[in-house]
């Protein structure tokens, strides 16, 4: 299916051409480098580059500078054409200009924090109408600021009421504590401090000041106002500096990103005194485009071939470019596929299968014309306003719910609202009444499960043939033998339950037995046909016993996976049942508020659960039969992607 084939491109040339080659590859946005040491023997005399990237620190410095001003850097169409020394000189100069302003901002901010801390501390003692400087200057009396629990204050008035040296003056209170001061003679200070410590008094240091508490607070607030004005002026100066330097900084940032990307390719390359070697992956459809950029460089040669089949080499995977309709309706479902794992180099693109099955199953399980429209509208808003990938999936899912809601005759839970439409179409009523056909709903759900299980196994057969694993395609539990075993089991179960059994019992039993035996001994024919080195079992007894239990596991998985699709029918019934509850609560008068609130709850709750359950069916009942998901996504070196990663 639509997975791009990758080619391995080896590039060699004169050492002085490496920067030009790197720049051409970066601009092509079609080359993903890989370590050249994996493909070139060390006996050829090539060594890796040991020099450090000089642009990484410059980028970090420039980015930190912009971040300190509170402005983001942006990639521009053009960059500054300057030498490295000129870049360094400019960064040092503009950083020095900003450093003075930033230091002023730091000092002003610290002073404001000190003032705010003073307000926070003094505000507890606004009831104290004494000169603070005079209190602290007392020679024979000391004062302590702090707070203690209200229970302790009550004990102070009872237990210690006759003690002559205790004087506590409450100034304010909160839910649990009194805030205030106590006074004590200097010669009794330790004794008084001990009593208040026993009463859980927590001392609270306040900054020294002259005047009453109210006067001090007024002066602090004046200072904060002055500091706010100075900070605002400082902010304007920083904004003016950025406005003056923004264009040059962005151009320099663009140029440094390009230089950094070009230089970073050296870490993948090998070299000797005269030449270099660079290796990477290029999509087959873009090989000529990349080669054309390199052919114009003198002394540079390219060699294109197939990637080696080795565990040491991870070949990246990229989806082929498709039309706008495919991108709108199918491509969004890659979000779910990549959650499970990227496709491997020999996997098939299952996006169309997932898009079709997920949309149909969601529509069946959430079949309501009105609520489906709401889901589609919600998905559209999620995508347009928040750029959420899930929004693009909800749009077709909601439309699918609209279709099945029309078949079920449900519009926001109203079951008879579409009757005039059906009569106009010549139908006696709704095509399918859910609550009148419960058994039919569950049987159809099982039938859907059988069809999708067989489809998943057919995809496995196709993927195995694509990987040239003929034995796997024929004899595995998800191959041809597995399909026959599963379908014959379904045929027998259907006949036993009184349902249709297209295959006669005798033939069915014979096919069931043969397919079971083939799946039972599958390791031997698969190993022989696909040329596995360890196909021959070490012990016949262990082989037979182990495969017996594996066969039982396969049969149980066929059964459990099929029955798991009962949730499709169950959700159809649950949806109808929940709306019946809503209308029961609304009463005969059909209270509009209850109906609207009930619909909102059903849309949110059941919509979420339906999405999760359908995804579970995709992952566990279908993906596990044909999809490996062990691939690596194709990430070519690109200025745009490096800029996005830097931000």
Automatic annotation (TrEMBL):
Keyword annotations: Ion transport, Membrane, Transmembrane, Transmembrane helix, Transport
Topology in the lipid bilayer: Multi-pass membrane protein
Domain of life: Bacteria
Spans traversing the lipid bilayer: 355-381, 393-414, 441-463, 475-497, 503-521, 565-586, 592-615
Main location class: membrane
GO cellular component terms given for this protein: proton-transporting V-type ATPase, V0 domain; vacuolar proton-transporting V-type ATPase complex
GO annotation terms (biological process): vacuolar acidification
Pfam families: V_ATPase_I
Gene Ontology molecular function: any one: proton-transporting ATPase activity, rotational mechanism
Localization: Membrane
Family assignment from sequence similarity: Belongs to the V-ATPase 116 kDa subunit family.
The protein's name: ATPase
Native organism taxonomy: Bacteria, Bacillati, Bacillota, Clostridia, Candidatus Fimenecus
